[in-house]
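User: Batch of two.

Assistant: Item 1 of 2:
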Amino acid sequence: MADFTLDYLELPSADAGKSRAFFSDAFGWTHVDYGGSYAEIRGAGLLFGVNADAADRSAAPMAVIRTDDLAAAEKAVVAAGGTITREAYDFPGGRRFFFREPGGAELAVYAASEDA
């Protein structure tokens, strides 16, 4: 069976720069910039990202699960009753897809570049 780990939380943002500045100013957290629309926030005890790309973000905060086998993860999600809401696509760092679990929450699963 593929390995699955809850890896980070992703927050939608209208402006990634403003979000980065807020978390730095308010809490002293640092960030890794992955381009103008995405940043990884560090220092919170849990990694999380802010995503300002309207075409590539969910409408609400989203838990992101890391796997070493993206194809197996898609099959497992569907077999367990989940619905794929965005097919797998490349993003900085790997490939991912979005899905909705039967209770209605949207999540993502990704495989890092070395696993994708």
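Item 2 of 2:
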Amino acid sequence: MYTLDMSTKYASFIKYLRTKRGISQSVVAEKLGLSRQSYMAVERGIREMTLQEAEKLCELYGISIEELSKVTAPQYEKYKQMILAYLKSPVSTDGRVPKTKLAKLLYLADFAWYYEKLESMSGMQYLRRAYGPVPDPYFRALDELEGEGKITIDRKGEAMLVSIGAGASRQKLDLLQGEEVELMKKISTKWKDKRSQEIVDFTHEQLPYKLCAPDEAIPYELITQEDPEYVY
């Protein structure tokens, strides 16, 4: 079912549909009855569409509302299990990982999975922030997991170190496929001894980050243009 926050969740796919067909933002804006500035806000994930606008968009691209609603639908609970899976993997020598580094590891898993399977692991929409790609629900997920006792967060000044909590001992990672967990283990092993700034710099140099504007939704499709050795 269509919901009014669809455009913020699927902004990257909406942009992909337009660029794949070689249509300008001005043309799409006119079809939707919007100003170019308003349509640009839709593609950046900061403006919601009305149902009528979404129907016009689907008519333009020859797809149904149902098809649009199913595209990379975010799986929030699965995303939380991805956090726990990383913390249970060899993510660091002492089992603690900086919050910023953890966010980048999750990003690499989602985009590396898309590179291999042409679908996101979690379906989360990542935004191009100054400190790297991150979905807004990341911070809520950490708060909820901490409140449930499944993770522990050590706060030292502005630094936040995240580790697995006692409450996660019986937590099943049943939303994750074995292949997905294996990919995350490979990523965590590669970055285990690297500093947060190193992984931030790495993601900043990847095409998805470099080709997007600040605060813009990052299209998963861009990772397919990356060299294999720079996917994660």
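The chain has a mean pLDDT of 89.
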